[in-house]
């Protein structure tokens, strides 16, 4: 996907995925199973003008509000 730099997509199940973009270094391989809390990348600025993280959750291909799925602060 253009404009997102180094991108990781985690398929959680047949309905949900999460995406993490602009990574400096990806620490997992395509097809690898990952666990909750596992470090999968290092923050970077690939595809961006400064270091940042683009994070999104999609359900059935449609973006949803990630705050509904994250633990409270």
Summed up, the helix count is 0
CATH structural fold name: Glucose Permease (Domain IIA)
Tell me, rounded to a whole number, the average pLDDT: 94
Query: Stretches where pLDDT falls below 50 for ≥5 residues?
Result: none
Radius of gyration: 12 Å
CATH homologous superfamily? Glucose Permease (Domain IIA)
**N- to C-terminal distance:** 31 Å
H and E string: EEEEE
**Level-2 CATH architecture:** Distorted Sandwich
Taken as a percent bin, the fraction of beta residues is 35-45%
According to CATH, what is the class? Mainly Beta
Total E-strand runs: 5
Write down the domain tally. Answer: 1
Shape: globular
Helix and strand content put the structural class at mainly beta
Helix content: under 10%
- Main sheet: strands, sense, barrel: 5 strands, antiparallel
Family: Belongs to the E.coli NlpD/Haemophilus LppB family.
Keywords: Lipoprotein
GO molecular function, one term: metalloendopeptidase activity
Protein name: Lipoprotein NlpD
Question: Can you characterise this structure?
Answer:
The protein has 73 residues and is an all-beta fold. It is built from no helices and 5 strands. A hairpin with a 2-residue loop joins strand 4 and strand 5. The relative contact order is 0.26. The model has no long low-confidence stretch (mean pLDDT 94).
Distinctive features:
40% strand, Glucose Permease (Domain IIA), 73 residues, single chain, mainly beta, five-stranded antiparallel beta sheet
């Amino acid at each position: 996907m253009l404009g997102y730099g180094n991108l990781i997509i985690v398929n959680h199940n047949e309905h949900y995925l999460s995406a993490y973009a602009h990574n400096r270094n990806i620490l997992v391989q395509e097809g690898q199973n990952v666990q909750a809390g596992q470090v999968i990348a290092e923050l970077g600025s690939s595809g961006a003008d400064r270091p940042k993280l683009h994070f999104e959750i999609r359900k059935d291909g449609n973006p949803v509000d990630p705050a509904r799925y994250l633990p409270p602060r």
